[in-house]
Amino acid sequence: MQRLYDFLRRHPTWVDGFWALVLLGVSGLGLVSMSEANGYDPNIAAVPVAIGLSLVVALRRRWTEQMLVLAAVIGVFQLVLDVGTMPANFAMLVVIYTAAADGEKWASRFALIGGLAAAPLSMMRWPSENTSVFGNVLFTMFQIVPFALAWVLGDSIRTRRAYLAQLEERADRLEKEREAQSKVAVAAERARIARELHDVVAHNVSVMVVQADGAAYVLDTAPDQAKKALETISGTGRQALAEMRRLLGVLRTGEPEESGEYVPQPDVEQLDELIEQVRTAGLPVDFKVEGTPRPLPSGVELTAYRIVQEALTNTRKHGGENAGASVRLVYFDDGLGLLVEDDGKGAPHELYEDGGADGSGHGLIGMRERVGMVGGTLDAGPRPGGGFRISALLPLKPAH
């Protein structure tokens, strides 16, 4: 059934042709019944009038303006040759509606004028002999109503279509702008992550240089210390290599050259300090660590720190006055789990994506980019009982 409906929507002329045949058949039956009832042959000119008006219905959507003019010509033809009204004249209402809905502006105005004039002209040509002048005027006014309603309905459809088209255009434009803003946000966040990871790698390399110098210094006098230093160099080098692999594909352009000494980025050990700062700012936070803490790759620690920072910042912004939050840090055998929840009123989805920590990040966009850089997963959304929840799983093995 749906397939048939779609087919008919794609071929409206077929539908109009069907109704044109119905209108022609009804008009033919009307002429035959009138001739039998009155006992005389009908006006032969009524046949081309019925055919012409049926053609108007069949082609009204394909050639709207032409069919409107044809209907006007047929109406004049009826007046001149004294062809009375018949069921086929219903086509005039149909073409007036079509011209108002789909035709050019001049066609719409012409349809309105012609529709308002049709009833008075008909009454003047075929007045009712048994009715007073007042009755004829009143009957004429009633006849004008269908033509006026047909035009008003068509013009309303035209206005509604224009309004919907404007809404669709606006929605498309907003969607394109949002996609562009998202791309800019992703690019900016990736550049920021690249800088931070670059600093982490630089710090690891600095550690390797210090350990290598120390190993060379004690190589002859303390071989055990030299061996331990070399093991440290090996582990740090592998970690730095993993961080460099995560940097691949992250484009960093237009950034000024940085000078000065590189310093380590925040890690999970500094979460206590971060949460204490948030508590001091007025947001109650319950912080728990589960599992056995152990050293983690620098990129994982930095990602965990930034996610907690981002989540608590958004809770402070959008959670409301009496909001509280909880942070769970879980050490698994092969990953680090994060769960940040609040019981506030929550933020609208769009604001939560667009707003970031300290106004410089981009909310969930930045979180997903960070988690993706270390090969992890992120789930964020409203809690069933109110508030917001963010959970992340960060693997401890390097992401290839």
List keywords for this structure.
400 residues, 12 helices, alpha+beta, 5 strands, 9% strand, Heat Shock Protein 90
Task: Describe the protein in words.
- The protein is an alpha+beta fold and 400 residues long.
- Among the domains are: 2-126, no CATH class; 268-395, Histidine kinase-like ATPase, C-terminal domain (Heat Shock Protein 90, 2-Layer Sandwich), CATH 3.30.565.10.
- 65% of the residues lie in helices and 9% in strands.
- The protein has twelve helices and five strands.
- The protein has helices at residues 2-10, 12-38, 46-58, 64-81, 90-102, 105-125, 133-218, 223-247, 271-280, 298-318, 349-354, 363-373, and strands at 285-290, 325-331, 335-342, 377-382, 388-395.
- It has a five-stranded mixed β-sheet, with helices on one face.
- Helix 10 (298-318) links the parallel strand 1 (285-290) and strand 2.
- Helix 4 runs parallel beside helix 6 (105-125) and helix 7 (133-218) runs parallel beside helix 12 (363-373).
- The longest helix is centred in the middle third of the chain and has 86 residues, at 133-218.
- Mean pLDDT is 80; it is low at 251-263 and 350-361.
Sequence of strands across the biggest β-sheet: 1-2-3-5-4
According to CATH, the fold-level topology of the domain at 268-395 is Heat Shock Protein 90
CATH class of the domain at 268-395: Alpha Beta
Structural class: alpha+beta
List the total number of helices. 12
Share of helical residues = 55-70%
Major sheet characteristics: 5 strands, mixed
Question: How far apart are the first and last residues' alpha carbons, in Å?
Answer: 51 Å
What's the architecture of the domain at 268-395, going by CATH?
2-Layer Sandwich
Give the number of DSSP strands. Answer: 5
